[in-house]
Amino acid sequence: MSGAKATRRNHGKVTAQDVADHAGVSLTTVSRSISDAGLVNETTRERVLNIAGQLGYRPNMAARVLAGRRSNLIGLLVNNFDDPEHLDLFRYVSAEAQLRNYHAILLNVSRGRREMASVDTALQFQVDGILVAASHLPDQLAHSCESQNKPIVVVGRRSLRPEYSSVHCDNDAGAALVADYMHENGVTRPAFIGGNADATVTKERMAGFVQRIEELYGYQPVTRLAGVNDYDRGHAAAMEMMNLPKPPDGFFCSSDLLAVAVQDAVKGRGAQKSRDLLVVGFGQSLLAKLTAYNLHSVSVPFEKMVRAATSLLISQIEGGNTDKTEIALPCGRIE
Description:
The chain has 14 helices and eleven strands. The chain is of the alpha/beta class. The radius of gyration is 25 Å and the shape is elongated. It has three domains: 3-59, lambda repressor-like DNA-binding domains (434 Repressor (Amino-terminal Domain), Orthogonal Bundle); 73-169 and 303-329, 3-Layer(aba) Sandwich (Rossmann fold); 171-299, Response regulator (Rossmann fold).
């Protein structure tokens, strides 16, 4: 009977002690090898990992947390799954986390009656820190992280709380680029459609656009807020604006999702109007690359931004620089 089979038969569940006995090392060496703490020579670590694999050993994450050690989990907080940008967001967070021997889990925190249940679920995962991509951070979750010394980093927007670090693009400057682009392309009646009125990105992109339009045209553009970053709401807002006595001939949308909704609304009004009207989104997401739309969009260093925020969070988890850091990355050209 092999050692692995004997272990399973005798114990039912393989433990770290079983791995230590088979490898002829201490429990501490097994723990350091599994966590890749860098305190075990590579030959020993490879032997321990090979034996652990043969035995089918899996670390007990709950036991690690109860023992006062890190879970090596980070939570990615979102509250809008309608935005396809979140697919790339989670992909880049996961990739960067794995480079540092961490894993990312997705936490959906909803507003309203379900918020408390969502917060409880998030806390049960015992994450070491949270990356906030949601427009809203529940107070209970923030207080819990603070009491447990779990760092929080905001990604994609400025933090509304002065104690949290953030990594984002320069929304104001990117929006000003759109105003310049419209002016250069002969737009005479510019308009803005945004999502959530409370969202920092909506406020910054609208403010940057309105200010630059006033400088270029001498008057403010027409603005509408859809309420959420949602296709149907964006479509309805565009239809409302197209019914104005003098409808816009240029739309700047705070996201590519809203821009696609506006394009569809415009196409429904006729081919001529579609050709004569300029629609610009923000983010150069997958939607902007679809040939069916050929969408103009402000490019942002999305992968660089997400990876930088993830790396910053892990550094704070591991006791690095815990001072508030704000990193604003420049937007690229409109493509």
